[in-house]
User: What shape does this take?
Amino acid sequence: MNSLLKSLRIIGFLEGISYILLLGIAVPIKYLFHDPQYVKLLGMPHGILFVGYVVLAILVGIELKWSLKTIALVLLASLVPFGTFIADSKYFKPAS
Assistant: This one.
């Protein structure tokens, strides 16, 4: 398996988990209990994983000669909860 693709799958998984934790746990705690510590704790790692996902998705898309539409859908997946898991099953896993 291509090492960039393998890295993208790992980063995509971690980014998806961090996004779900951020939106599903940290943000509700922040607004319901006025406790922003979890958003601060999860925000930076999620941001780093997000940027890594975007960069790797573009590099893998170029390397595998994906269409612009496919690259756009893979990038859009990072903005939707559970989107990176769908992108993994639809685009990354078949390419490996």
Q: What stands out?
A: The chain is about 85% helix and 0% strand. The radius of gyration is 14 Å.
